[in-house]
């Protein structure tokens, strides 16, 4: 808590704003009369408070369709039908690396392929657990680690689905036990059975003398990677979910299990930080919140943020009216959400807060801070002191604050914010404490 010493400042002002309809009203003429925001600002800080100011606030949503998703922290896979937001469909592309070079299997007639498994280690899940229809395709064009890939990017693939015939229906459940052989794994995995015919073909090519397993570059020319996706055409609203997977964990890999001369063995194709990968996500373009995009009036009731596309925006033009000889001591933005504890689509634990800048015609997002979610208060609390001070100092232009799920390019989270005109109990609030010198 910042304290203002009475001998240090000629004047102190506190702005406490409650968003009602499209107006921020701040009235703090006297300490005894100032009750707005008293739970957030220590009353000792109001010792010299006086003054009246008015902010106009606009809240709305917009779609950002240029989401960079290469080498994201997690891979996302699955789909769900959101009753509010519509369909969310996620998959990913990835390369593989060799476990060891120059594979020598000797006499191939002594080799029997038992199974071919793509294992993906869970790091989380969003939505509902349940069976989904998984499809896997071999990539036929090159991927590059230093290239930029967007969430709507598409690579060429072979049309043959590599999932073992009849085994596309797979249960998505991060809490389910995973048993491999006789071992129960400590961490759950999604294990996708692939075609044993494809595994046999890989072994034959490895032993053909073509040098495909000589090194990783040669292998990537031969096997460029996989596109893993789902095909769930009959999901009803409230059905489905999306798994989050750690591709850089050693347990995430492609494995050929085989028996040779009665001995069970395996060969692994690894996924690591040297592999290019990116998430591909499609979100509903017509249903739900997209109907209100560009309609700032409707955005005053509710506004929205969703991973891989929709961002929430808050404009506070009145911040530009704070005197330029001011020091911002506190600026807390509280954004309540529409969510009940235990609901299917939680708002996550954090949100990223950014400013929208434009340099040379290029739009840039400068991340300023992180908003922490309180399940008790059902709201995000965001410290925008640095943002407000930068505006006062004329260091940045007062454009808008942009709010997104913290993992905007690697999750399936979505948030419904209460707008200034919401009929819900809790409305957005802004508390600002500053002093002029």
Summed up:
It contains three helices and 27 strands. By secondary structure, the protein is mainly beta.
Structural write-up:
The protein is mainly beta and 437 residues long. It folds into two domains: 182 residues, no CATH class; 209 residues, no CATH class. The protein contains three helices and 27 strands. Strands 5, 6, 7, 8, 9, 10, 13, 14, 15, 16, 17 and 18 form a twelve-stranded antiparallel sheet that branches. An eleven-stranded antiparallel sheet has the order 3-2-1-27-21-24-23-22-25-20-4. A hairpin with a 4-residue loop joins strand 23 and strand 24. It is elongated, with a radius of gyration of 27 Å.
Supply the number of helical segments. 3
Major sheet characteristics: 12 strands, antiparallel
Structural class: mainly beta
Q: How many β-strand runs?
A: 27
How are the SSEs ordered, and which strands pair?
Layout (H helix, E strand, L loop, with lengths): L10 E10 L2 E5 L24 E5 L1 E6 L11 E8 L3 E9 L2 E2 L12 E17 L2 E9 L30 E4 L6 E2 L2 E2 L4 E6 L1 H11 L9 H7 L3 E5 L9 E6 L7 E8 L2 E8 L6 E7 L18 E5 L3 E6 L10 E11 L13 E10 L2 E13 L4 E5 L1 H8 L8 E5 L8 E5 L10 E8 L1
Antiparallel strand pairs: 1-2, 1-27, 2-3, 4-20, 5-6, 5-15, 6-14, 6-18, 7-17, 8-13, 8-15, 8-16, 9-10, 9-14, 11-12, 16-17, 19-26, 20-25, 21-24, 21-27, 22-23, 22-25, 23-24
Give the tags.
twelve-stranded antiparallel β-sheet, 437 residues, single chain, 3 helices, mainly beta, eleven-stranded antiparallel β-sheet, 6% helix, 2 domains
């Amino acid at each position: 808590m910042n304290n203002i010493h009475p001998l240090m400042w000629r004047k102190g002002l506190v702005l406490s704003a409650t968003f009602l309809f499209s107006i921020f009203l701040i009235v703090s003429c006297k300490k005894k009369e100032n009750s707005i925001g008293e739970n957030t600002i220590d009353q000792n800080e109001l010792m010299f408070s006086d003054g009246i100011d008015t902010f106009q606030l606009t809240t709305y949503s917009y779609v950002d369709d240029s989401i960079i998703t290469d080498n994201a922290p997690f891979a996302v896979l699955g789909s769900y039908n959101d009753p509010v937001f519509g369909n969310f469909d996620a998959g990913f592309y990835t390369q593989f690396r060799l476990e060891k070079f120059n594979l020598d299997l000797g006499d191939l007639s002594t080799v029997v392929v038992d199974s071919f498994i793509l294992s993906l280690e869970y790091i989380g899940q969003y939505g509902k657990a349940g069976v989904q229809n998984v499809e896997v395709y071999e990539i036929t064009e090159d991927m590059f680690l230093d290239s930029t890939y967007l969430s709507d990017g598409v690579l060429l693939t072979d049309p043959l689905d590599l999932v073992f015939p009849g085994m596309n229906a797979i249960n998505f459940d991060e809490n389910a036990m995973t048993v491999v052989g006789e071992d129960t794994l400590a961490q759950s995995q999604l294990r996708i059975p692939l075609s044993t015919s494809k595994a046999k073909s890989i072994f034959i090519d490895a032993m053909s003398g073509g040098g495909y397993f000589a090194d990783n570059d040669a292998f990537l020319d031969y096997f460029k990677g996989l596109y893993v996706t789902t095909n769930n055409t009959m999901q009803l609203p409230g059905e489905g979910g999306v798994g989050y997977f750690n591709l850089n964990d050693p347990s995430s890999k492609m494995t050929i299990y085989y028996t040779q001369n009665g001995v069970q063995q395996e060969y692994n194709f690894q996924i690591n930080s040297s592999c290019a990968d990116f998430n591909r996500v499609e979100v509903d373009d017509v249903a739900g919140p997209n109907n209100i995009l560009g309609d700032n009036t409707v955005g005053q009731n509710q506004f929205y943020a969703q991973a891989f596309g929709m961002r929430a925006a808050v404009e506070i033009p009145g911040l530009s009216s704070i005197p330029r000889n001011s020091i911002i001591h506190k600026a807390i933005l509280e954004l309540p959400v529409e969510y009940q504890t235990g609901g299917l689509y939680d708002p996550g634990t954090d949100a990223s807060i950014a400013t929208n800048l434009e340099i040379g015609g290029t739009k840039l997002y400068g991340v300023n801070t992180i908003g922490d979610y309180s399940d008790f208060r059902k709201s995000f609390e965001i410290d925008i002191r640095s943002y407000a001070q930068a505006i006062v100092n004329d260091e940045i232009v007062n454009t808008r604050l942009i709010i997104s799920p913290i993992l905007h390019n690697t999750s399936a989270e979505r948030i419904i914010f209460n707008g200034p005109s919401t009929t819900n109990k809790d409305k957005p609030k802004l508390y600002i404490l500053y002093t002029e010198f």
